[in-house]
Write a structure and sequence with these properties.
alpha/beta; Glutaredoxin; five-stranded mixed sheet; 33% helix; globular
Amino acid sequence: MTPLRPARRAGPAALPLLIAVVLAAGCAAPATTASTSEAKAGDVAPPLSGTTLDGAPFDLSSFRGRPAIVNFWASWCVPCRDEFPLFKAAASKYSADGLTIVGTVFNDDEVAARAFATKAGANWPSLIDPVGAHARDWRVVAPPQTYFIGRDGKIVSRQIGQLTSADFDRQLAAILK
């Protein structure tokens, strides 16, 4: 029979690991009862309302019956910057068809976002999302992420990552019909 040895105590080298484990446990997101499903094609678009960068109220539901594009973006996001001209061109070209474009600022400083939108010539509303509620509702992890919504209020397609011109044209055609 092997004799029992006294338990070894953790030395000072283990302290940083112990602190990291305790801090990580304390930073874990609290349990939530919200749905974990993603906003995907065929689903009714989640609610989207709030205040725009210009200080105006906005509610996507008031645009039901019109095709819509919802784009989650940030001023620090290079792919977001690169795809803005696509939105600008579509806003101009398809305004007579009732196209609604709305941006949602993702994890960005409001002043920086406003400056970028102004410089880029964005003439569509962009909602402020200071606590990330819109991003959670729409299941956005990182920008850019874009939703194309049909006149019936249902998501027709979703683009995760930067839109190419071909991607944009194909998905836009599907909601303009």
